[in-house]
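Notebook entry, structure prediction.
Reason for the run: the old model in the group folder had no record of what sequence produced it. Starting over properly, with the input documented here first.
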Amino acid sequence: MRIRLPAPARRGGPLPAVVGRRPPTRRGARRALPAAVALTLLTPVYACHAPLTPPGAPTRWPAAYAHRWQWQWQLDGPVDTDVAADVFLLDPVRTTAADTTALRRRDRRLVCQVHVGSYAGTDPDATRFPAAVRGAPTGRAQRHWLDVRRWDVLKPVLADRFRLCRGKGFGAVALADADGYAHRSGFPLGFDDQLTFNRQLAVLARSLDLSPGLMNDLGQVTALAPDFDFAVNEECVRLKTCAKLLPFADAGKPVFHVEYTGDTATFCVTTVGYGFASIRKKRSLDAWRDPCQLP
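New structure, fully documented this time:
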């Protein structure tokens, strides 16, 4: 059966319909158990809510609507489910099943942010990373780089992080800190090491029915755009690097972009012209947002 996808909403209008669910399979049943275990370990129990059934397929991003999405990125404070946006990028641990249920009832597309190349001591699964893969500080939020060459060690932990997203009802995942090779990570990471790791993550996400998105890592966009469904970028206007994201936009894939300074009336001219979905946010990434208006 062919599924028709309506266009994303203009600000304040109706939002796109949920993609149809696939019938359950034995493979899906095997995936459900680890997702439920991860969800139990990492989140509170919500006795007053019915269990959340994950969507039956990864989020789809119709190319015809790539420049029409309105989005929200919130990592701090209670999730504001009433924001007039089509796409929500959220922390899968802090976001509750009640939040995702409310958003999915409004047909929002849900993207979870997963740190794939770093860990923090406050992460619920931090003890699963042995000392051998723990590297130098990333410079933000007391996080440290991981040795992405050790796929054998990192894959089981990251797979469970992805399953947590899936179990809470997310249909897509944005890979944060996927550019350790470009920083002083504490390991001799090369371009090809990072490229291999990021492609393995894209394959892993798809195997768990999640649409993979690349966050930042501008130095590898040209090589990785075919492997990912969307991009998330911080401050390409301020850093004068927006043109590096064109492999996504030219392929009809969404580019979700944020600036933390400047006036939307100024930077939106550039980013909307490129076909990006752009907003201004505070660096705390609370609920406040100032979106670019669509033409």
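Summary: The chain has eight helices and twelve strands.
The old model has been moved to the deprecated folder.
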